[in-house]
Structure formats: C-alpha cells, structure tokens
UniProtKB/TrEMBL annotation:
The name this protein goes by in its record: TetR/AcrR family transcriptional regulator
InterPro entries per the UniProt record, alphabetical: DNA-bd_HTH_TetR-type_CS, Homeodomain-like_sf, HTH-type_TetR-like_transc_reg, HTH_TetR, Tet_transcr_reg_TetR-rel_C_sf, TetR_CgmR_C
Superkingdom of origin organism: Bacteria
Membrane-spanning intervals of the chain: none
PANTHER family, alphabetized: HTH-TYPE TRANSCRIPTIONAL REGULATOR RUTR (PTHR30055), TETR-FAMILY TRANSCRIPTIONAL REGULATOR (PTHR30055:SF148)
Pfam families linked: TetR_C_28, TetR_N
Domain HTH tetR-type: 12-72
C-alpha cells in the first residue's frame, strides 16, 4: 500500500476510490456498515482525506448514490442501444441489470443501490428521480402496465435472491422468463400469467 502522505495528489482519482470503496461497503453491509474510518482504510487515505472530499457521512452516501446511478445509467443506455426491439427496451435493460447474477461491476452497483435503499429510506429520492427520468424518456416504449409489473417482479426476484444469499436455476429461469415477456408478442398473452 502506498503511503497516503507521500502519494502524488490526484483528487479526482482519490474521490473515485473513496466512492468505490463506499459502494463496496454499502453493497456488503448496508449503510450502517459504512464508516468513514473503514472507507479511509480501504481507499488508502486518511480519515481527514475522506472529510476533505465529503464533509460528513450523509454527503458521502449521497455522492456514492449519484456515482452508482451514473454507472447504472451508462450500463442501461448501453443495453438499450444494443436492443433491436424498441417496445420494452428500458424494461429489458432494467431486468438485466437488476438480475445480473455475475460478479460484475454492474451487479455490485445494483447491490449497493439496493442495500442503500433498503437500509436508508431517506436516500430513496435519488433512486426515484433516476427511475422517473428514465420512465419519462421511455414513455413511448415502456409505459404499459404489463411492463411495470415485470419491473416490479424483477425487484421481487432480486430481493428473494438476496435473502436466500444464493443463486439458483430458478433465479436464472425467472430472469429469462421476465425478459421474454417484455416483447410485443408476449404482451398480447400477458393475461395468461
């Protein structure tokens, strides 16, 4: 580990490192597991170094959420751009990100945002604003009640998977089934759920 006092100053890199480590703690332990001291140790900076960028824990958590949401937004956009079907494109991206079972950055981002929302309801406004903005952008393609139900179902599958702390074949099958129901032809037979 590099001595925090001798490292070349790179405030943007340090800020990002602090936010990434905050995200890791939030994903693993929820908001209560995030302490300034632990974040500082993980980022290889002093506690004062954390306070230099964020005046308190609340500001750190808010900045972490904005950071996470920007990463999720970029991944959502990438998935939407790669989608060949416009109907339900946001919902498919949402399900893909929500139920990303791989140990990727996206799944860590989703875990961090979800754990924060579960353990710190005061910060839900950041998430709600993002979702509202996305739904507004995709009003023509993703406003149907069927697609809304599928997004809620994905949230429920994620929560069940989180509570069980293991991924099962059923988890993967549910993800595939939810995504398959986002296409226009399947919306016709949605009543057969």
């Amino acid at each position: 580990m590099v001595n925090a006092y001798q490292r070349k100053k790179d405030p943007e890199h340090i800020r990002k490192l602090i936010l990434e480590n905050t995200m890791i703690l939030a994903a693993e332990k929820g908001v209560s597991g995030v302490s300034i001291q632990t974040v500082a140790e993980m980022a290889g900076v002093t506690k004062g170094g954390v306070f230099h960028h964020f005046p308190n824990k609340k500001a750190l958590l808010e900045a972490m959420l904005h950071f996470v949401m920007s990463q999720i937004d970029a991944e959502t956009e990438k998935l939407i751009c790669a989608d060949t079907e416009s109907y339900g494109c946001f919902t498919r991206a949402y399900i893909e990100i929500t139920l990303n079972a791989n140990a990727t950055a996206v799944s860590r981002y989703w875990d961090a945002i979800s754990m924060t929302m579960l353990t710190e309801p005061d910060l839900n406004a950041i998430w709600a604003q993002w979702l509202e903005k996305r739904l507004s952008i995709h009003a023509d393609t993703d406003q149907s009640l069927q697609l809304k139900i599928l997004r809620y179902a994905a949230d429920g599958v994620w929560l069940t998977g989180f509570a069980e702390m293991k991924l099962t074949e059923d988890f993967i099958k549910m993800k595939q089934e939810l995504i398959s129901r986002t296409y226009p032809a399947s919306s016709q037979s949605f009543n057969g759920l």
